[in-house]
Amino acid sequence: MAKNKIKFSEDKKYHKWRRIGFYCLYAAIALAVVCIVLGQVFGMDSKPCLYSGYAAIVLVIWFYLINFFKWRCPNCHKTLPLLGPVLECRVCKHKFVDDKGNQVW
């Protein structure tokens, strides 16, 4: 095992919050699928379908709120892009990857 690999318990706070945000997004996708299946079986006006749909909407809102408030550049504290690799900050140009391609933050 590589020595420089960060364990889950030692992960930095902003990476932890980003992971929590994506867990909310994955749960929202799963609940949306459940809503569609329940809608086909019981009808779109059934309570389980409506509740799972509302829960999916709430989880997507949590995803955006977590990423807006917690996924920020450690240097200038501006928000970072939600999707894709983040190689540098768009505002202050702080680099998050060294010359070898390793993550440094």
TrEMBL record:
Which spans are transmembrane here? 20-39, 51-69
What keywords sit in the KW lines?
Membrane, Transmembrane, Transmembrane helix
Q: What is this protein called?
A: Uncharacterized protein
Q: What is the lineage of its organism?
A: Bacteria, Bacillati, Bacillota, Clostridia, Eubacteriales
